[in-house]
Design brief:
The structure is a single chain. The chain contains 9 helices and 9 strands. With 299 residues, the protein is of the alpha/beta class. The chain has a 3-stranded mixed sheet with strand order 1-3-2, with helices on one face. It has a 3-stranded mixed sheet with strand order 4-6-5, with no helix packed on it. The radius of gyration is 32 Å and the shape is flat. It starts with a helix and ends with a helix. 15% of the residues are buried.
Length: 299
């Protein structure tokens, strides 16, 4: 009997899968429109570098996502609609099915094309397209609606020159020492992600050089877009108001090795029985004699 009921349940789900393509809008209230998604149309004068990657990046910023589709159908939305409103405030089969198998309808009223335009423009500028023209159209038919975003762009801005901090201070010198391995290279398109990675690279180098309190937020990138035809000059600089300890080089003074260290309170209270100091290395022991030569070779 259980197998028979299970068969009927699967049959209902499969039937709903094929019926979901045409029946979802009948559950909408008057004036409501089901949002079916968006299309981004890029119109460029020249070939776009890595166009498919840019297209995917732009698609991913659009909000909200429409209801899930499978072969052009929306079975999750159909399940949500056909199950109906749960009668119980909490628990119950309908509520479980809606929550775990269904999707509430995504309506056009939840979409803000103007907000998406701003997100698209921000992402385009992050990829070096500083002067895009964007517009949108809403396509409506039978209580369904989609949005077409049209983008007109020229070729991305290229990096013409990169300048690093000047000055004789240790911090500025340390940054210039690794400028030859910079990720920001002349001739390459402007890309914000590359700038973020460059900041991390410089910060890691400075930490290893002893600038313990340096913070990557102390680095700034100034971009001049007025230098030529679709080119930028990049200036890597330091914030003027960064704290003094961010400029200071820290060094190890003394190193202490506790051979009997323990988190146990009783062991921690034992008095030191032996201490040896060798070239700034202090070897501490509470319970036994120690061979300093072992630590000289390993610490």
């Amino acid at each position: 009997m259980a197998k028979k009921n299970y068969f009927y349940f699967i049959l209902i789900i499969i039937s709903g899968f094929f019926l979901s393509g045409c029946g979802n809008t009948r559950f909408l209230a008057p004036g409501q429109e089901l949002y079916t998604g968006a299309e981004i149309i890029i119109d460029a004068e020249e070939k776009i570098p890595n166009e498919s990657a840019l297209q995917n990046e732009l698609d991913n910023v659009l909000r909200p996502d429409p209801n899930t589709t499978i072969l052009g159908l929306r079975p999750n939305l159909w399940i949500y609609n056909i199950v109906g409103e749960p009668r119980k405030q909490t628990g119950g089969f309908r509520r479980w099915v809606r929550k775990n198998m269904g999707e509430a309808p995504v309506l056009l009223s939840e979409v803000s094309p103007q907000s998406n335009i701003r997100l698209l423009q921000n992402r385009l500028e992050s990829n070096g397209y500083f002067d895009p023209e964007l517009s949108f159209d809403i396509i409506r038919k039978n209580q369904r609606a989609s949005v077409n975003y049209k983008i007109e762009i020229n070729s991305p801005y290229l990096i013409k020159h990169v300048a690093f901090p000047k000055g004789d201070a240790a911090l500025e010198k340390s940054i210039r020492d690794i400028s030859g391995k910079s990720l920001i290279k002349p001739g390459k398109p402007y890309n914000l992600e590359v700038f973020i990675e460059e900041r991390r690279r410089i910060d890691e180098h400075l930490k290893n050089a002893g600038f313990f309190y340096f913070n990557p937020d102390f680095l700034i990138f100034r971009v001049d877009t007025t230098v030529g035809t679709r080119e930028v000059n990049v200036f890597v600089d330091l914030k003027r108001d960064m704290p003094n300890n961010g400029r200071r080089i820290y060094q190890f003074r003394n190193i202490y090795v506790d051979t009997d260290f323990s988190l146990d309170a009783v062991d921690a209270e034992l008095a030191l029985t032996d201490t040896i100091a060798i070239d700034g290395l202090f070897i501490l022991s509470r319970t036994q004699d120690i061979d300093a030569s072992v630590f000289q070779r390993t610490v």
